[in-house]
Write the structure tokens for this entry.
Amino acid sequence: MRVLRCADSGVLVEVADLDEALALQAALAEQPPAGVTDIVPAARTVLLRLDPDGGDAGAVAAAVGRLRPRRGTRAAAGELEVPVQYDGEDLADIAALTGLSEREVVDAHTAAAWTVAFCGFAPGFGYLVSDDARLHVPRRSEARPRVPPGAVALAGEFTGIYPRASPGGWRLLGSTELVTWDLDRDPPALLRPGVKVRFREEPPAPRRRSGPSAAEDGGRNARSEGGPRADAGS
Amino acid sequence: MPAVEVVRTGALTTVQDGGRRGHAALGVGPSGAADRASYALANRLLANPEGASALEVTMGGLVLRARGPVTATVTGAPCPVTVDGRGAATDTVLHLPDGAELRLGTPFAGLRSYVAVRGGLDVAPVLGSRSTDTLAGLGPPRPEPGTVLPIGPPPRALPAVDWVPARPFPAEELDLRIVPGPRDDWFTESALGVLLGSAYEVTSRSDRVGARLRGPALSRRRGGELPSEGMVPGSLQVPPEGRPVLFLADHPVTGGYPVIAVVVSADVSRAAQARPGTRLRFRL
């Protein structure tokens, strides 16, 4: 563990891997040092942002040094099931890059136990990790100017869901109708660090079929109006 | 309840307060007034509680009409101020009668002026803050001509002073203190010397997210990708082409380029007043 300073505005703690970052995050959540306004976990680091009017970087760095994070501990944050239509524009590319068939890509993505490691890029954008290394793919060499909201994508060791339309360089696997970021909800993000996620395959969109059954249609409407039904609470 | 009606907004006017805390783990950045010092001064002048929301006006041009009697002040980038056409001063307490028009001209120096009203702007907070995050698209909507901004109840305390001495706004060159790191070890040994020994000009591609700088490139010792990590305001983040970006209030929560040094928090407010063309000099 290496403790680095961001002048008087933050303390950046560098760790060996994601597992250690998650354990440190859990330890910090239990014993937050005084003067810290925000804890920002990332892939190999945890940033502690300091109160601009009274955080003491030296004291915070010392407090972090005294922590003894236990590897394997995670902040418990609930579970979420995400329905996905696996019809993304990059599905064929992902299959080619992983050496799997498109069917095997979908099966791997739905079988894996995912955990939100951290958020970033945009409000409510979670970086999800799993133990299945077969799905690791590089980002696209060129970002798309617009990725639609709800796009489910892969990049590096992560999968993620775009909370709103934005530019993006991740490879598109499919899409979900689940609204992952909603300011009328408290907390607004479904994908919070520590939330465990399962992806469930949904039949393709109704417009591509001869006609959905009434039951399926009803289910879809209930989801879009009533929001997610999966329990993401802690 | 008294209110102010926006007649004209100028280039960019947003509602800001002390910023949004406690949501960075969800990918929500701090936002808030870019020049925290001038914003805090405005609230102090009016005896407002810390954190009362105000308007941040970029390069002047704002026109407000008082609905009911309004006590206001203009701080930050000094600019011509008129109340119903009569000259008024920045950094003073202004009494606007019902219907009076407050106008801000183009600043003589600096970039961002703050218009605060006694009682604060009573717009709906988003995630605990009335700051507009221009990068994330979060917070109160951007005021437009015709927008009526309600004013909160006046605080008990009365303004203690009528004016404060203006702080200097250097037009051409600005000294900023930095602390090397957290990723200075990603750069060649000479890079920090280059950063400290050169002038970096603020370019026109600068906004509330950050000031993009022009100057000698800072070269990296190591290649490869830095895994994305949390950022703070004042970070000097260096993209592969080597010209640093000085992060301001609406900076991204995480970033994937190394930060060679961070401007100390007290100087980030001054950096937020640097217009395109201003030369920045960094020192330890």
In short: Chain B touches chain A through 39 residues (CB under 8 Å). Residues 35 and 139 of chain B are 18 Å apart (CA to CA). The first strand of chain B starts at residue 3 and ends at 9.
